[in-house]
Protein backbone atom coordinates (compact mmCIF):
# COMPACT_ATOMS: atom_id res chain seq x y z
CA UNK A 1 0.00 0.00 0.00
CA UNK A 2 1.44 3.36 -0.97
CA UNK A 3 0.39 6.98 -0.68
CA UNK A 4 1.36 10.30 -2.18
CA UNK A 5 2.38 12.56 0.67
CA UNK A 6 1.17 16.13 0.29
CA UNK A 7 1.71 19.28 2.28
CA UNK A 8 -1.74 19.04 3.86
CA UNK A 9 -1.67 20.08 7.51
CA UNK A 10 -3.49 18.44 10.37
CA UNK A 11 -6.74 20.18 11.23
CA UNK A 12 -6.33 22.39 14.34
CA UNK A 13 -9.94 21.65 15.31
CA UNK A 14 -11.36 18.16 14.87
CA UNK A 15 -15.10 17.49 15.11
CA UNK A 16 -16.33 14.15 16.41
CA UNK A 17 -20.07 14.47 16.04
CA UNK A 18 -20.92 17.56 18.09
CA UNK A 19 -17.69 17.30 20.13
CA UNK A 20 -15.02 19.78 19.06
CA UNK A 21 -11.39 19.03 19.93
CA UNK A 22 -8.96 21.95 19.73
CA UNK A 23 -5.96 22.82 21.85
CA UNK A 24 -7.40 26.24 22.67
CA UNK A 25 -11.04 25.16 22.95
CA UNK A 26 -12.73 24.04 26.17
CA UNK A 27 -11.71 20.60 27.41
CA UNK A 28 -13.48 17.55 25.96
CA UNK A 29 -13.51 13.99 27.31
CA UNK A 30 -12.91 10.53 25.85
CA UNK A 31 -14.07 7.90 28.34
CA UNK A 32 -15.37 4.39 28.81
CA UNK A 33 -14.29 0.94 29.99
CA UNK A 34 -11.09 -0.58 28.64
CA UNK A 35 -12.78 -3.64 27.20
CA UNK A 36 -16.21 -4.15 25.64
CA UNK A 37 -17.56 -6.82 27.97
CA UNK A 38 -21.19 -7.16 26.85
CA UNK A 39 -24.02 -5.18 25.29
CA UNK A 40 -25.68 -4.63 28.67
CA UNK A 41 -22.46 -3.47 30.32
CA UNK A 42 -21.60 -1.13 27.46
CA UNK A 43 -25.04 0.51 27.45
CA UNK A 44 -25.02 0.83 31.24
CA UNK A 45 -21.67 2.63 31.31
CA UNK A 46 -22.38 4.72 28.21
CA UNK A 47 -25.72 5.86 29.65
CA UNK A 48 -24.12 6.82 32.95
CA UNK A 49 -21.37 8.75 31.19
CA UNK A 50 -23.86 10.53 28.96
CA UNK A 51 -25.80 11.66 32.05
CA UNK A 52 -22.62 12.94 33.68
CA UNK A 53 -21.53 14.79 30.54
CA UNK A 54 -24.97 16.36 30.31
CA UNK A 55 -24.82 17.62 33.87
CA UNK A 56 -21.32 19.01 33.42
CA UNK A 57 -21.99 20.33 29.91
CA UNK A 58 -18.83 18.74 28.53
CA UNK A 59 -18.34 16.99 25.21
CA UNK A 60 -18.02 13.21 25.48
CA UNK A 61 -16.76 10.51 23.12
CA UNK A 62 -17.44 6.96 24.34
CA UNK A 63 -14.43 4.64 24.22
CA UNK A 64 -14.18 0.88 24.46
CA UNK A 65 -12.23 -1.91 22.75
CA UNK A 66 -13.64 -4.97 20.96
CA UNK A 67 -10.27 -6.76 21.08
CA UNK A 68 -7.30 -6.22 23.37
CA UNK A 69 -4.78 -7.65 20.94
CA UNK A 70 -1.72 -6.70 23.00
CA UNK A 71 -2.50 -8.36 26.33
CA UNK A 72 0.51 -9.31 28.45
CA UNK A 73 -0.39 -13.02 28.52
CA UNK A 74 -1.97 -15.26 25.89
CA UNK A 75 -4.38 -16.49 28.59
CA UNK A 76 -5.80 -12.99 29.27
CA UNK A 77 -9.33 -12.11 28.10
CA UNK A 78 -9.21 -10.18 24.84
CA UNK A 79 -12.83 -9.11 24.38
CA UNK A 80 -15.97 -10.11 22.50
CA UNK A 81 -14.53 -9.63 19.02
CA UNK A 82 -15.37 -7.52 16.01
CA UNK A 83 -18.52 -9.25 14.78
CA UNK A 84 -20.33 -8.98 18.12
CA UNK A 85 -19.03 -5.48 18.83
CA UNK A 86 -20.16 -3.64 15.69
CA UNK A 87 -23.93 -3.81 16.41
CA UNK A 88 -23.26 -2.62 19.97
CA UNK A 89 -21.26 0.37 18.73
CA UNK A 90 -24.04 1.20 16.30
CA UNK A 91 -26.66 0.97 19.06
CA UNK A 92 -24.71 3.28 21.38
CA UNK A 93 -24.53 5.85 18.58
CA UNK A 94 -28.19 5.56 17.59
CA UNK A 95 -29.91 5.12 20.96
CA UNK A 96 -27.72 7.39 23.09
CA UNK A 97 -26.43 9.79 20.45
CA UNK A 98 -22.85 9.37 21.63
CA UNK A 99 -19.91 9.28 19.23
CA UNK A 100 -17.83 6.12 19.65
CA UNK A 101 -14.07 5.47 19.54
CA UNK A 102 -12.44 2.04 19.31
CA UNK A 103 -9.03 0.57 18.54
CA UNK A 104 -8.06 -1.12 15.30
CA UNK A 105 -5.12 -3.47 15.09
CA UNK A 106 -4.96 -4.52 11.44
CA UNK A 107 -5.41 -2.63 8.19
CA UNK A 108 -8.11 -5.10 7.14
CA UNK A 109 -10.32 -4.05 10.07
CA UNK A 110 -10.47 -0.34 9.32
CA UNK A 111 -13.17 -0.10 6.65
CA UNK A 112 -15.54 -2.44 8.50
CA UNK A 113 -15.07 -0.79 11.89
CA UNK A 114 -15.50 2.66 10.34
CA UNK A 115 -19.10 1.79 9.46
CA UNK A 116 -20.04 1.65 13.16
CA UNK A 117 -17.79 4.19 14.94
CA UNK A 118 -16.70 7.82 14.70
CA UNK A 119 -13.02 7.53 15.64
CA UNK A 120 -10.47 4.85 14.75
CA UNK A 121 -7.75 4.64 17.39
CA UNK A 122 -4.25 3.42 16.60
CA UNK A 123 -2.70 1.69 19.65
CA UNK A 124 0.62 3.04 20.89
CA UNK A 125 2.56 -0.09 19.97
CA UNK A 126 1.30 0.20 16.38
CA UNK A 127 1.69 3.95 15.85
CA UNK A 128 4.38 3.58 13.18
CA UNK A 129 2.65 0.82 11.19
CA UNK A 130 2.29 2.61 7.88
CA UNK A 131 -0.27 0.30 6.27
CA UNK A 132 -2.51 0.51 9.33
CA UNK A 133 -2.27 4.31 9.41
CA UNK A 134 -3.07 4.61 5.71
CA UNK A 135 -6.02 2.23 5.95
CA UNK A 136 -7.43 4.20 8.87
CA UNK A 137 -6.91 7.47 7.00
CA UNK A 138 -8.67 6.11 3.94
CA UNK A 139 -11.93 5.62 5.85
CA UNK A 140 -12.32 9.39 6.23
CA UNK A 141 -13.01 8.94 9.93
CA UNK A 142 -11.19 10.82 12.67
CA UNK A 143 -7.98 8.97 13.55
CA UNK A 144 -6.62 9.10 17.10
CA UNK A 145 -3.01 7.96 17.28
CA UNK A 146 -1.49 7.10 20.62
CA UNK A 147 2.16 8.08 20.84
CA UNK A 148 4.33 5.02 21.25
CA UNK A 149 5.98 4.61 24.64
CA UNK A 150 9.23 4.38 22.67
CA UNK A 151 8.87 7.65 20.72
CA UNK A 152 9.93 11.21 21.41
CA UNK A 153 7.02 13.64 21.03
CA UNK A 154 8.55 15.27 17.94
CA UNK A 155 8.67 11.85 16.24
CA UNK A 156 4.87 11.96 16.02
CA UNK A 157 5.10 14.59 13.28
CA UNK A 158 6.09 11.81 10.85
CA UNK A 159 3.19 9.66 12.04
CA UNK A 160 0.67 12.46 11.50
CA UNK A 161 2.12 13.23 8.07
CA UNK A 162 1.40 9.65 6.97
CA UNK A 163 -2.29 10.23 7.72
CA UNK A 164 -2.61 13.78 6.40
CA UNK A 165 -0.57 12.85 3.34
CA UNK A 166 -3.19 10.20 2.60
CA UNK A 167 -5.81 12.95 2.48
CA UNK A 168 -7.23 12.88 6.01
CA UNK A 169 -6.56 15.99 8.10
CA UNK A 170 -8.73 14.87 11.03
CA UNK A 171 -6.09 13.53 13.40
CA UNK A 172 -5.83 13.50 17.18
CA UNK A 173 -2.54 12.67 18.95
CA UNK A 174 -2.56 11.13 22.40
CA UNK A 175 0.22 11.19 24.99
CA UNK A 176 0.29 8.17 27.31
CA UNK A 177 3.74 8.26 28.88
CA UNK A 178 7.20 7.04 27.91
CA UNK A 179 8.96 3.83 28.94
CA UNK A 180 11.34 4.41 31.82
CA UNK A 181 13.24 1.31 32.87
CA UNK A 182 11.25 -1.86 33.45
CA UNK A 183 7.45 -1.94 33.95
CA UNK A 184 7.33 1.82 34.37
CA UNK A 185 6.00 4.80 32.42
CA UNK A 186 6.65 8.47 33.07
CA UNK A 187 4.72 11.46 31.76
CA UNK A 188 6.82 14.37 30.58
CA UNK A 189 4.49 17.37 30.50
CA UNK A 190 6.81 19.09 28.02
CA UNK A 191 5.58 16.53 25.48
CA UNK A 192 2.12 18.13 25.36
CA UNK A 193 3.09 21.53 23.90
CA UNK A 194 5.76 19.83 21.76
CA UNK A 195 3.12 17.52 20.26
CA UNK A 196 0.86 20.50 19.58
CA UNK A 197 3.65 22.50 17.98
CA UNK A 198 5.22 19.75 15.88
CA UNK A 199 2.08 17.98 14.65
CA UNK A 200 -0.43 20.84 14.53
CA UNK A 201 -3.10 18.40 15.76
CA UNK A 202 -5.31 18.54 18.85
CA UNK A 203 -3.54 16.84 21.75
CA UNK A 204 -5.20 14.36 24.11
CA UNK A 205 -3.74 13.25 27.43
CA UNK A 206 -4.39 9.63 28.37
CA UNK A 207 -4.58 9.88 32.14
CA UNK A 208 -5.25 6.22 32.87
CA UNK A 209 -2.73 4.44 30.65
CA UNK A 210 -0.09 6.90 31.84
CA UNK A 211 -0.24 5.28 35.29
CA UNK A 212 -0.09 1.75 33.88
CA UNK A 213 2.75 -0.58 34.88
CA UNK A 214 3.17 -2.63 31.68
CA UNK A 215 3.55 -6.31 32.54
CA UNK A 216 3.96 -5.26 36.16
CA UNK A 217 2.03 -8.23 37.55
CA UNK A 218 3.84 -10.88 35.57
CA UNK A 219 0.95 -12.11 33.43
CA UNK A 220 -0.91 -8.79 33.43
CA UNK A 221 -0.22 -5.08 33.74
CA UNK A 222 -0.40 -3.24 37.01
CA UNK A 223 -1.27 0.37 37.63
CA UNK A 224 -1.45 3.15 40.19
CA UNK A 225 -4.91 4.65 39.77
CA UNK A 226 -4.42 7.02 42.70
CA UNK A 227 -2.14 9.09 40.43
CA UNK A 228 -4.69 9.48 37.62
CA UNK A 229 -6.08 12.75 39.06
CA UNK A 230 -2.56 14.03 39.72
CA UNK A 231 -1.37 13.58 36.14
CA UNK A 232 -4.67 14.66 34.64
CA UNK A 233 -4.65 17.94 36.56
CA UNK A 234 -1.06 18.58 35.52
CA UNK A 235 -1.80 17.93 31.84
CA UNK A 236 -4.90 20.12 31.84
CA UNK A 237 -2.96 22.90 33.56
CA UNK A 238 -0.41 22.74 30.73
CA UNK A 239 -3.23 22.86 28.17
CA UNK A 240 -4.74 20.06 26.08
CA UNK A 241 -7.72 19.54 23.80
CA UNK A 242 -9.03 16.57 25.71
CA UNK A 243 -8.43 13.97 28.39
CA UNK A 244 -8.79 10.22 27.86
CA UNK A 245 -10.02 8.42 30.98
CA UNK A 246 -10.89 4.74 31.20
CA UNK A 247 -13.60 4.18 33.79
CA UNK A 248 -15.54 1.17 35.09
CA UNK A 249 -18.25 0.54 37.71
CA UNK A 250 -15.96 -2.00 39.44
CA UNK A 251 -12.39 -1.72 38.15
CA UNK A 252 -11.03 -4.42 40.44
CA UNK A 253 -13.27 -6.94 38.66
CA UNK A 254 -12.63 -5.64 35.14
CA UNK A 255 -11.11 -8.10 32.65
CA UNK A 256 -8.35 -5.67 31.63
CA UNK A 257 -6.59 -2.54 32.90
CA UNK A 258 -8.48 -2.57 36.20
CA UNK A 259 -5.55 -1.23 38.27
CA UNK A 260 -5.40 2.02 36.29
CA UNK A 261 -9.12 2.63 35.60
CA UNK A 262 -11.09 5.26 37.52
CA UNK A 263 -14.12 3.95 39.44
CA UNK A 264 -17.26 5.27 37.75
CA UNK A 265 -18.44 6.73 41.07
CA UNK A 266 -15.39 9.05 41.07
CA UNK A 267 -15.59 10.06 37.41
CA UNK A 268 -17.90 13.07 37.67
CA UNK A 269 -15.99 14.81 40.44
CA UNK A 270 -12.70 14.25 38.60
CA UNK A 271 -13.98 15.69 35.32
CA UNK A 272 -15.55 18.66 37.11
CA UNK A 273 -12.19 19.46 38.70
CA UNK A 274 -10.42 19.08 35.36
CA UNK A 275 -12.87 21.48 33.74
CA UNK A 276 -12.07 24.04 36.43
CA UNK A 277 -8.34 23.64 35.79
CA UNK A 278 -8.92 23.90 32.04
CA UNK A 279 -10.93 27.08 32.34
CA UNK A 280 -8.23 28.71 34.44
CA UNK A 281 -5.38 27.57 32.19
CA UNK A 282 -7.00 28.73 28.96
CA UNK A 283 -8.27 32.01 30.41
CA UNK A 284 -4.75 32.92 31.45
CA UNK A 285 -3.06 31.69 28.25
Order of helices and strands: EEEHEHEHEHEHEEEHEEEHEEH
Structural class: alpha/beta
Overall pLDDT level: 91
Number of strands: 15
- Give the amount of beta strand, in percent: 15-25%
Placed side by side, the strands forming the largest sheet appear as 3-4-5-6-7-8-11-14
Helix % is: 25-40%
What Rg do the Cα atoms give? 17 Å
- Apparent shape: globular
Low-confidence stretches: none
Our measurement of the CA-to-CA distance between the termini, rounded to an integer number of angstroms, reads 43 Å
How many strands, which pairing sense, and closed or not: the largest β-sheet?
Answer: 8 strands, parallel, barrel
Number of helices: 8
Describe this structure in words.
This protein has 285 residues and is of the alpha/beta class. It is built from eight helices and 15 strands. It has helices spanning 39-56, 82-96, 110-114, 130-138, 156-165, 191-199, 228-238, 264-284; strands at 13-16, 19-22, 28-32, 60-63, 100-103, 119-122, 142-146, 171-175, 178-179, 185-186, 203-206, 212-213, 222-223, 242-248, 262-263. It has an eight-stranded parallel beta barrel with strand order 3-4-5-6-7-8-11-14, surrounded by seven helices. Strand 9 (178-179) and strand 10 (185-186) form a beta hairpin. The longest helix is centred in the last third of the chain and has 21 residues, at 264-284.
Amino acid sequence: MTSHVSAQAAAPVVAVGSVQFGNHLPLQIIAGPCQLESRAHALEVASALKDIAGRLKVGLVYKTSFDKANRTSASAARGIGLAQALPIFAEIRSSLGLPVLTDVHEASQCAEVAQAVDVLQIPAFLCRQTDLLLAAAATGKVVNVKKGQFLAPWDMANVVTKITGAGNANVLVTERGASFGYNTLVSDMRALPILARTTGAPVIFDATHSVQQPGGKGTSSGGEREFVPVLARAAVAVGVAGVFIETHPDPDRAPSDGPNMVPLRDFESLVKRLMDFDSLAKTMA
